[in-house]
């Protein structure tokens, strides 16, 4: 970058990195936990029941589970021994770059107007169009993978509304700049002019929203609307979601000085793209859409930096671009940064985070720890990229680029010429016999295409950076039913485990390219799926052994009891401390533990099975979109923090069966102690009894949904019957 301003100011860093406090004390603490884990392993190995003794295989199963848990815990420490936080100086950026800020391309991806309402999509679009950034340097692209004329119509409406919304945002400096989010909050009106303009802009928005919603409900565009915009000529009776030609329409030409808002201010470029889809061609899901966007944008605006967002994740801070550029344009370290990942936050999280969707410890601690190695994972949204690195460029130490050089090279082309050229780039056949999906763009063949792409970029010598600002930069919509949460988790954990079993396994592909700590950090998430097996062992074996009076933990008076007790108490105390330091409530931490058990015993297990089956070539990769449309009664229960079950799926059958198994075991243990007066059970089985009681407490919402609730979100009676039968049969099984 050119040194505007000269002197010492040009040499001042645009960001600083600070190390979190108390990491030394944490290392000492972690060392004591590690000693405790090692002692548990020693106990298991030295006390294995003899061949033929009851509980021998249960003991071996517990040892294998504890061995896995211990090794996995060691992995997690790779991102906890040192934690760093990055702080940009955007004031320095403004003074240094003056009027020569680089161009930014913003990608927003949507795939289904039924599951991702067009009104939600355009709120995201309007929020990024309104950034505090020179509009002539801003281009917004919407990828519509459904090729829906309904989404196109919504974007057409948004392009007109933006001429009113953008100047309103900048005149009064409002936050956030998603109309829906802004109007939903409490607004303090003190200025008469502001009040009048607020009422007017809100009226315009509601009218637009009603037109879009009524059109979407009707399911087709009226002839009157089609006659007003020639772009609708792309849609005919032959166009379907999975079979249509490439469509590229420039809705607002940001190059045109006559393309202005109601006050004469310039507007950013706005482009609609639906890449070609044909049944005989693989479309590679979101990765394919992103790669088409990279190519199309290179033809139209070709900005050196790219921000990609999911369609439900609106911009919550109007100055985010400047903050991100501080990292890329820093004189000392900026040239080596490939992408800057922001956390995924949500605006509909309940007070106690009912479904543990925020992953607060991951976003506040673990990612900040992985950032030490310059290897923060790419999470698929809320991420700024350097275009060159995303397109396959290998980093070299002498790499530099002057960002004050004009990047756009198509200012002389007409809109029609750009659209025609872009359609070719978005066609199915364009990628044939090219490196796209392998060494260029996002990598194909993985449902977690973001993670594997980020890893591949880092293995080409680039570094990534994690930035968690005080004001959340982006806010999305978290799923509000348990089924949607678990479906999303299945997709994530399946895709991540698929990477671990592929050539992109960090320990193999990353060997010698990224640091060992970074390899371990990646594997924390890639191994979510196999963690289901030891978790299932811990949820099933101890209660069954308790029911049969078989001890698989040391007695209270035994010295071996101490390492078990210490590791359990220390790890949970640390977990609570981390959660509270990240802003969670104690109940949110408890909800997190509950969801941890549910995920590990259901979705992660399914992901493990599905991935193994896929590795054997018996199935193919699929992609399921999480729905964003819910009914009012579901929303009400979510706001009241009541878990939404409501369907008869195998997932809920497993959850209910495990809950009933632990309940039966607890009742059996209490009967032995109270009715049969077997008080020695307390000394022999105290750890099993405690674990069993803990699991029963975690499952209280499940029991309520089985026996007490009568709303539509309860667990169906058919699952209640199946869970009782299955749990009863399990209790009758002999322990070997």
TrEMBL record:
GO annotations of cellular component type: endomembrane system; membrane
Transmembrane intervals: 24-45, 57-75, 525-547, 642-665, 685-707
Chief site of localization: membrane
Active site residues of this protein: 145, 450
Pfam family, one: Cellulose_synt
Binding site for UDP-alpha-D-glucose: 115-116, 145
Topological type in the membrane: Multi-pass membrane protein
Chain residues that bind Mn(2+): 286, 310
Keyword Transport: no
InterPro entries: Cellulose_synth, Nucleotide-diphossugar_trans
Keyword terms of this UniProt record: Cell wall biogenesis/degradation, Glycosyltransferase, Membrane, Transferase, Transmembrane, Transmembrane helix
Domain of life according to the entry: Eukaryota
Localization: Endomembrane system
GO molecular function term, any single one: cellulose synthase (UDP-forming) activity
An individual GO BP term: cellulose biosynthetic process
Protein name listed in UniProt: Cellulose synthase-like protein E1
Species assigned in the record: Castanea mollissima
